[in-house]
């Protein structure tokens, strides 16, 4: 037996349970090693940190899938940034197009994409791909995150585009709150990004539900109140219970035909999420995150799930990835069990 076969054999001895359902063939792992839109370096290593966490746990999770790798544009980081209000937007545009076309193809094949990504900007490509495959279906989004990710080049204080994916998808510039004067070329790329998959909003702002969002800026607060976007705080999750909040979140999206769930690991508390670019206190516990995602994914309208922003270079040991892997594995199990 080769070493690799032996490793696989040994792994399969440990955890034979989740996998041998026909539905597993319908799940497709999508790996997006992008970190170009984050403010700190290292999120492109998050996927491999998840794999190390899986090996350390002796889980055979990753042996059960045949992943697709989406080309990134991290090489733009070597060239230097030319767009202060939307850093590396030319590269971000490339990655989003790649993610968009991959996810669109998978959805046309009726696959369920589980997306493992680096920086959160690429979630816009995921949403655009889901929408393109079924343009007539109303798409709702459950965004589990410390941040609202509703900035635009006109409002961002940092220029980091991982804070902008939801603005891309609702097709807003948020000029009511303009503080920056982006350059012409930046604006051209921003327009091209918003129009990937069609020159229209991919989601209604009312069809976004936030969970545990707790670190927002004024321009984002403006959009949240303008559109009445619901945010279930960590305190509400704790008071009412995870199952109750999951149901309420799904109820907000009762008129949607399909649902995408985006799980940013910084939704978890900063005490356990050291290994991510922008940790924030008062977040979810690992147990709450597991139960929340496992509950939400039982809804038959959910058609794609994504986990982002693990950055092992900021971590001590590999704790963030280990916790994130627990969420990934439990959520996938719930998906398979409830198919
Ligand atoms: Mn995010």
UniProtKB/TrEMBL annotation:
It catalyses: L-arginine + H2O = urea + L-ornithine. It is an enzyme of class 3 (hydrolase). Its EC number is 3.5.3.1. The keyword Magnesium does not apply. One of its GO terms (cellular component) is cytosol. One of its GO terms (molecular function) is arginase activity. This is Arginase.
